[in-house]
């Protein structure tokens, strides 16, 4: 996995780089502050962000938020030397997938990375399901609108209007929603819209 490191302490950054390599990952950076991390992510988007929270110019949480807003959302593992419950809440609100406190051992680092990647994939799958459900609802509304047009224009029953749409889809090798869209578009043309 390609992991972008952002850590303002050069000694810790070197250590994280070596540890990521030992865990089989490809470390990118390290960036010395959040703004530099954002620039590096824009140039060559990684698979995961490993950001220190407390950095100059732009902290790790603000950098992660900025990247997410730019469409560069990735799993985020934050590391910090501060034990602050408010910081944990801010991390959760930012979409952080794993939160590690310094000093970090290899097991915790590996677990944090794996957890973050897994949670990110689950989130992406849920987003895809929501998008699919939203599209199904839009399609269903269009089919209902087309049935209404057929009922009004021909006086057929609702089940018969649906059968006609199904038959047209089958005969023309189209999806139901494509036939419905054509019916609605033709009605709009006839109405002069």
UniProtKB/TrEMBL annotation:
One of its GO terms (cellular component) is protein-DNA complex. One of its GO terms (biological process) is regulation of DNA-templated transcription. Pfam families: ANTAR, Response_reg. The modification 4-aspartylphosphate is found at residue 52. Keywords: DNA-binding, Phosphoprotein. Gene3D superfamilies: 3.40.50.2300, Winged helix-like DNA-binding domain superfamily/Winged helix DNA-binding domain. Residues 2-117 form the Response regulatory domain. One of its GO terms (molecular function) is phosphorelay response regulator activity. It comes from the Bacteria. Residues 123-184 form the ANTAR domain. InterPro entries: ANTAR, CheY-like_superfamily, Sig_transdc_resp-reg_antiterm, Sig_transdc_resp-reg_receiver, WalR-like, WH-like_DNA-bd_sf. PANTHER family: REGULATOR OF RPOS, RESPONSE REGULATOR RECEIVER. This is Response regulator NasT. It comes from Conexibacter arvalis.
